[in-house]
Amino acid sequence: MQDDTREALAFVSRAAMRYVEELDRQQVRLPNADEAAWAMPAEFPEEGAGTIPALETLVRGGIDAAVRSSGPRFFHFVQGGGTPAALAADWLASTLDQNSFTWVASPLGTRLEKISIDWLNELFGLPPEWGGILTTATTTAHVTALAAARQWWAEQHGVDVDEQGLSGLPPVPIFSSGYLHTTARKALAILGIGRSRVRTFAADTTGRLDVDALSAALHGLRGAPAIVIANVGEVNTGDFDPIGTMADLAGEFGAWLHVDGAFGIFAALSPRTAQLVRGMERARSVVADGHKWLNVPYDCGFAFVAEPERWPRTFTVSATYIPDLSASHPDFGHLGPESSRRARALAVWATLRAYGRSGYREMVERHLDLAQRIARRVDAASDLERLAPVPLNIVCFRFHPPGVPEEELNALNERLGAAVLEDGRVYVGTTTYAGNVALRPAIANWRTGEEDVDLLVDVIRELGAKLAAAARP
Ligand SMILES: *Cc1c(COP(=O)(O)O)cnc(C)c1O
Question: Per residue in 250-283, pLDDT tens?
Fold first, then answer.
């Protein structure tokens, strides 16, 4: 190995700049993407190729194979891009290569993480005394915050669950609506509570909360402690659980209210949508993503806990060479699932410092407007049918040309979803909503504008018409 770091960074930065410059124009998926991915060298090299040749192969094939998900026309799942400040700060995080495990290893990473958490608290309007941590994603934020809930719950039964485990304890009563995200179940499996243990109360096939059923279930516990999960921003339509009502119930029955706000928490940023999350400040834990609407590069999430002094002991580590958890500064390696950890705070701090509350509010409101623009175009088109209201940044609809019988629509929309991904000009997938196969574009990328959402609707109608014509006898 020789030190060709300067040359390597210069080479990659030129390639990265080209990539970013073309991002607004290029297809989301290049026609040769799969081919390029399969063509990446896979034989283990006995003799190395050298720094620049290896990077050349990565840039040449890799960039063709990359899905332009950080670009403006990626509407699949809910993904953001990286703002300029976040992207550049994330590069710096790799260059400085800080281990944000403990203050001694990285005063910079630790200090910026504490500031970032405080700023996010303010951005979302959470009480200032809450504590938090940056995680890899909402999934690991669920693990962190639900570990706090689990610890609290076991304490009511006289057990220190992190020392003794769950054996001997009764099943954990845990309730949610039909909007529960699959990653909350994953976290419950990791924590030994069990992914099927959670009972969901849905009023209908959309998953909307049945408040009376939740209330009855809490009643049925006769005072035993429970955990309630509220969902702010459901992935099919962007709908919200009635968080105020759930906070009332949690207060009445002494339950731990945990809130999944992966992207929906950003409703707090605009007076147009802030009422959708009102009541969240009465929860005991809240989780969200950074790599979605905050638009920092993968991967980044946040966990907030209302009583930082009750932080779960699940994640503490001890060894003679590791500093103990200190009172004077947070050592985040003791507080979350990862011990050694990337300095994710650099990107979070930089993007909030660069654009502030007003920049993010402006972006969120632009996305709200774009979602309404799609909804209007869907409503005006004779071959599209909107399936749900649009409270936030997701529009749930299907292709429904006149004359196609109801029983053929699911298969037609499945094919349409696949055709859109294959086409590659825009990216959007299908879901099943209340029994109907539907498209559900989500807008979360800071680059997305009117021309991008217009193209989305045009491409869907164009490809849909082709499929419908081909299906006609
Ligand atoms: C995306 C999402 C998650 C999971 O987030 P990851 O970043 O994939 O861990 C959880 N809940 C909701 C509502 C989401 O949209």
Answer: 999 999 999 999 999 999 999 999 999 999 999 9
Indicate whether 391 belongs to any domain. no
CB distance 262 to ligand 1 below 6 Å: yes
- Alpha carbon of 297 to ligand 1 centroid (Å): 15
424 lines ligand 1 (CB under 6 A): no
In a domain, 243, yes or no: yes
- Which residue range forms the structural domain that includes residue 13? 5-68
Q: How far is the CA of 148 from the centre of ligand 1 (A)?
A: 19
pLDDT surpassing 90 at residue 204: yes
Count up the domains in the chain and report the number: 2
Query: Is the distance from the beta carbon of residue 392 to the nearest atom of ligand 1 less than 6 Å?
Result: no
Q: What's the predicted TM-score (pTM) here?
A: 0.97
Residue 288: name the closest of 366, 183, 188, 200 by CA.
183
Ligand 1 neighbour 233 (Cβ under 6 A): yes
